[in-house]
Amino acid sequence: MFDRRYRSHHDSEYALKSFLNLSRPDMATKEELELTLNSIPEKDERVIYFHIPFCDKICTFCNLNRGLKKDDLEEYTDFLLKEIDKYSKYEYINSKEFNAVYFGGGTPTTLSEKQLEKILKAINEKFSLSKDVEFTFETTLHNLNPEKIEMMQELGVNRFSVGIQTFDTEGRRVLGRTYDYIETVKRLKKMREIFKGTLCIDIIYSYPGQTISNLELDAKTLMECGIDSVSFYSLMLHEGSILHNLVENGKIRFDRDIESDKRLHNYFYEKLLENEYEMLELSKLVKPGRDEYRYIKQKYLNGDVLPIGLGAGGRIGDIGVYNMAPARTMLANKNEDYDFFNKILGIMQFGVYDLGKIENMFSQAEYASFTEKFEQFVSTGYIKQVEGEEYRLDSDGVFWGNNIAIELLKSIIKMRKNINYEKTDFTRRSDGEKSLQKQGHR
């Protein structure tokens, strides 16, 4: 049914923006942002995102420049402290609580224990956080030690997302990960012993040389380590990465197709469902009650995301904020169409379709178009009725979940915009392809 797969929510977002012709956003001004920051927020869904654009080791599948110098970290810590202080003085920021804080990167725990302590103390002192705030750090195992974990835990960090990618020793070598299977498991179990919060990991499937046995090891090991939730992604082979260059030069063989990709996805997905995990999102499985993933949920629903750090992007009120450089921030006014469709796309990321709620989002004609396309996916078996007007994706449906969501939305967008998309390919390019293409043109 599909020739190409949208492997992530980012891919489907990119396609949505392309369908809506949003290549040139309506720019906002600093004065407009200042007015918003000095107002009282209407939204209750509020999160803070910190970006740490440094790593002390570059994975082979990463194409970003995230080099590291010790002086950079000290300067960057000072920069973040100034940003925290600056934003904390605004009424929009301090008049309501934030219920999630998320540190991404890069690798945020590349910062030293002292640097992290300064930042965490400043956050607790200068921002109003809810009592049950979800406080997440992305991390690797090699730049955490028991002392750092305990300090972070004492200062409110209650969720770690660890970039494991695979437990298999050879697979870890291919992906540029530190430690072999034995040391990885040893460190992860020690972390589980110390850390009382939510422990999440990332797993990559469909990398060069991976077999079902490798994936079986990943599933078995993460369960033995007491992992609360796992995000699992098909490898994105980006141009400019070490791994891409090795494949292009014939030094690593990578014979992947959609069927092999789906076989690995479905094995891992079904294995964890059999062992008391459940789907939270198209690419996330959780133990019941152990992970809310609040940051991403609120982001999907167009909530406020206060972006702090170079490379951080977010939204303050109706203004998109993208921190390009210390003195360069891009500001964009919200787009009503994009907000509407992106929110529905976000809802669809959870693999559950409530037709009663969806019907209320569209006009009668739009809903008729939606249900016509929806019934096609039901007939393929990708979508199954659970009860009443509630439907869920099956394993193949989860695999194709982003494609299904885009096809459902495209029928409505086409009706609203009266645009013919038949000759246009809106896939964000990976696996060696760079950009949006029309058939026969670059």
What does this structure look like?
With 442 residues, the chain is an alpha/beta fold. The chain has 2 domains: 1-21 and 336-429, no CATH class; 26-300, Alpha-Beta Horseshoe (pyruvate-formate lyase- activating enzyme), CATH 3.80.30. It contains 17 helices and 17 strands. The chain has helices at residues 9-19, 30-37, 70-88, 91-94, 113-126, 146-154, 169-175, 181-194, 212-224, 242-248, 258-273, 294-300, 336-348, 355-359, 364-380, 395-399, 401-417; strands at residues 46-52, 98-105, 129-139, 159-165, 198-205, 229-234, 278-281, 284-286, 304-308, 313-316, 319-325, 328-333, 352-354, 383-387, 390-393, 424-425, 437-438. The strands form 4 sheets. It has a 9-stranded mixed beta sheet, sandwiched between helices. Strands 10-11-12 form a 3-stranded antiparallel beta sheet, covered by helices on one side. A 3-stranded antiparallel beta sheet has the order 13-15-14. Helix 1 runs antiparallel to helix 13. The longest helix has 19 residues, at 70-88. The two termini are 25 Å apart. Residues 421-442 have low confidence and may be disordered.
